[in-house]
Design brief:
This is Lipoprotein. The protein is built from two helices and eight strands. By secondary structure, it is an alpha+beta fold. β6 and β7 form a beta hairpin.
């Protein structure tokens, strides 16, 4: 019993404050102690060192100028093309869902400052959607944080990530949802 009294507090201190980490550390500590006792007593004691994880549905709000904890899906400029007015433009080329195929989508692009912050201003939100192959918007070149969601699909899917818009050409963006 003295082993448990020393092992558990030591593991809690070493692992930090996250409850998942503490739970895992305590389980590992107990399993290690059980294995140590079982090897010295010739009894058959089995330990269960399996963790169970569940995922929760994350809601992404494309209109909000906040970065998500991680990037979802994949967003990339797949090609650029000259346009007659030599303006910087952006258009969604296609949106793909891995289990559905090509879908409609809507997106917000939020400008990223030179310091790396997402600019939160109504005038900096750029809204895009898939309407036709020629649908595009004039935008300043630079780096943007893009948030995209599916339209017309029963279960919403999202794609988020940084995108670099090349100046004086039309930038065609492909989006693959997670």
């Amino acid at each position: 019993m003295n082993k448990f009294a020393l092992i558990i507090p030591a593991l809690i201190v070493l692992t930090g404050c996250k409850s998942n980490d503490i739970t895992r550390a305590v389980k590992d500590g107990i399993n290690g102690a059980v294995n140590g006792v079982s090897s010295s007593t010739n009894q058959s004691i089995t330990s269960s060192n399996q963790s169970s994880y569940t995922t929760t549905q994350t809601k992404v709000y494309p209109h909000k100028a906040t970065k998500e904890p991680r990037d979802y899906g994949q967003i990339q400029v797949i090609k650029t093309a000259a346009n007659p007015k030599k303006q910087t433009r952006v258009a969604i080329n296609k949106c793909l869902h891995p289990r559905v195929g090509q879908v409609k989508c809507s997106a917000y692009m939020h400008e990223i400052s030179p310091e790396g912050w997402v600019v939160d201003a109504q005038s900096n939100r750029i809204w895009l959607e898939t309407r036709s192959n020629n649908y595009d918007k004039v935008v300043p070149s630079g780096t943007y944080y893009m948030k995209v969601k599916t339209k017309g699909v029963a279960k919403e899917s999202y794609a988020t990530g940084d995108i670099n818009i090349v100046p004086f050409v039309t930038n065609y963006v492909d989006i693959t949802f997670e």
